[in-house]
Amino acid sequence: MSRPHDGQRTFFPFGNPFRIILPKGSYLSPKLLALLNIFEQTLAESLKRLKPKNASDVLSLSWMSHAMESLSEAHANIKTLITDLQFPVSDWDEKWIDIYLDCSVKLLDICIVFSSELSRLDQGQLLLRYVLHVLDSSSSCPSSEQLKQADACLHDWVKQLNLKSPKFENCSSILQSLSQTLDFTKVKNSAKGKVLMTALNGVKVMTIFICSVFTAALSGCFTPLMDMNVSDKFLWAEAFSDLQAVVNEEVRSQFSSGKITMLKELEAVEKCVDRLHALTSVSHNYETLLQSGCKKEEKLLQSDGIRHQEVGTLVKSVDPEESEGFQESVSNMAEEAERFGNGLDLLAKQVRDFFQIVLTGRDALLSNLRGSDVTRESSVDEIRP
Q1: 306 - beta bridge partners?
Q2: Which pLDDT tens digit goes with each residue over 154-200?
Q3: HEC profile of the chain
Q4: Per residue in 268-299, is it b (16+ CB within 10 Å) or e — as a string?
């Protein structure tokens, strides 16, 4: 269980669970030790690559995509390790199987929440695409009706952005329960089991950490962040501790500064939307006042030094500086929205890939269990008189 400490969440208050997985005196053959060392070194390198050169990049879609890709690789490496160990599921302790199945279904639930949130953000892109369609850059002077439509869509986008899924609360509780499964009792009478459980715990620490950062970034709440202490006897421990320190410090710093939007690319879009929203709102309201107060037969209006020209029943601003600034805002939003959309697509793909890896591993284990049951039943039938 975890308990609060100085406003932060530090796990394993009753000691380090890793210390009891491979206690002093545990014997591993050179072959098994070599397999474990290779796995841990690979995990360490993966964690090192995740440490950003610039701490602010932690909350970017590109870093998150890289993190999810690394997580998929780590889980795929577990499958390779099981094959290299020649350690079939039929030889596993029932407790390991129960823990694996429980953890895998919880990871699938977290992936579903992540995918749902990314899909919601992507739906918001439709509103921005419509705004850009309405405020076509080829038209230097949008009509009052166009400004009205764009203003309404931008308002809806801001409103949708501020909605947060309540499912993220469930993610936090899932991550806490996953951390509790790290507290294994000593693995007995199975050298291969010791290697597998040690490797699984390393991947599980990485998984809990990355998912906690994702949950914080997507939910706009730092509560899911965790501070996990691991034994320095593991080859990946230093790399993990360094990464965790940098990432958690940056995320907490962003929250303490009062920021609500955590994703770097989304924040850039939001700034453009706020700027354009202000312009469309002011321009639309101003032109509405002009139209309501003018006479239809008048061909030219002068107000506050800004010239307006009536074309039919439509009043258009023809101030060069105002038009140029407006179109610049439209262009900036188009660029940032495209960058954000590309980042969303890549991250969504990585989440789907991770989901598939976890699901495939779970299905394979269940299939092997069913096969083992059939084999045992056949053996029993053979020895019956």
Answers
A1: 303
A2: 999 999 888 877 888 889 889 999 988 886 456 777 889 999 999 99
A3: CCEEECCEEECCCCCCHHHHCCCCCCCCCHHHHHHHHHHHHHHHHHHHHHCCCCHHHHHCHHHHHHHHHHHHHHHHHHHHHHHHHCCCHHHCCHHHHHHHHHHHHHHHHHHHHHHHHHHHHHHHHHHHHHHHHHCCCCCCCCCHHHHHHHHHHHHHHHHHHCCCCCHHHHHHHHHHHHHHCCCCCCCCCCHHHHHHHHHHHHHHHHHHHHHHHHHHHHHCCCCCCCECCCCCCCCCHHHHHHHHHHHHHHHHHHHHCCCCCCCHHHHHHHHHHHHHHHHHHHHHHHHHHHHHHCCCCCCEEEECCEEEEEECCEEEECCHHHHHHHHHHHHHHHHHHHHHHHHHHHHHHHHHHHHHHHHHHHHHHHHHHHHHHHHHHHHHHHHCC
A4: bbbebbebbbebbbebbebbeebbeeeeeeee
| Whole-angstrom distance, CA of residue 78 vs CA of residue 82 | 6
The model's pTM is 0.80
CB 354 within 8 A of CB 64: no
Q: Rounded to an integer, what distance in angstroms lies between the CA atom of residue 304 and that of residue 285?
A: 15
Residue-wise pLDDT tens digits, 286-324: 454 444 444 343 444 444 343 444 333 334 444 555 567
Q: How many CB atoms lie within 10 A of CB 261?
A: 18
Contact 348, 119 (CB under 8 A): yes
Give strand pairing partners of 307: 302
Residue 58 has pLDDT above 70, yes or no: yes
- Those residues with Cβ within 8 angstroms of residue 358's Cβ, 6 or more apart along the chain or in another chain: 75, 104, 107, 108, 111
